[in-house]
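I'll show one example:
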Amino acid sequence: MHTNTMSVRLPWQRASRSAPAIGWIALVTSIFAGSTSITFAAALAGALSPLSMLFISEALTMLFTVLSFGLVPIIVRLSRINRKHWVPMLVVGFSNSVIAPLLAFTGIRMTGPINAELFIRVEDIVLVVLAVVVLGERMKRHHIFGALCVLFGVTIVILRGFSEALHISRGDLYIIVAALFYGCGGIVFKRYLHSIAPELVVFCRTCVAMTAFFLVSPFLHHTLVQELNAFPMELMVALVGYGFIARFLNLFSFYEAMDRLPVRSVSLLLNLGIIVSIAFANFYLGSPIEPFHIAGAGFILIGSVLMEIDGITRHKLHHAHLIHKHRSHV
């Protein structure tokens, strides 16, 4: 990884020919590591409150960002940002690192990890619709078809394969509303912050989340320290997995892949995470995989790929947006 704080070439960086191979290994690692996030979060939902999960998630992200790019260089670069960008960064931070994650963590406590993984994909539809309404982008046929595929896939899951009447559980609704906030934050990023280095936006998002946590925590009956003291040992694997695999290893591998591979390859293949996530939820938590889950996931996967086609041709803008979006979900 290229950073602002380390100039020594690591052993695996000596030969430029090995860079693509390392990139592919990093991408596969990122797909598998990122696919554990919702499952580990669901396992921890009974022992940790949504606010505590928010703190753990954002604290680890901040730590990774500082270790990767250096605290002093980040602060120096932030001090040079035009004032007009600060309000959008605060809006994105509050939307994507406070409101949306709290809604998502709350929803995960009330619904299954497979439903959560599928319903969070509503963000793709929100991004396409708002890109047309807010950004004035032209919606092409593959965008419309892709959005309809995602919508149809979500509908299949809601109606349980059209075998039941329309009924959205409370947890599913929380996940869908969280996806709306993720999508709105993504549009604000694309309109106002696409020229800002993604790591700076990510760092500001974590600062907003951490500030919100410390402002609210004194008014809570159960603090993070109390929850950790009463934390059951049998969930320690899930806690370590969420902190190290789902957050740190996922982000580390993602940046390594983005550094060595074409954006189009990373963008398209990351969508395969939906399949791995469902399989891991079944393996780790024993969550049943119903036929309507498979059908819904198939349509959502096709729709997500179709909506990525146009973005991969605009390398710089899509590079920044992909990094921002990858840090959106829990």
Summary: The mean pLDDT is 81.
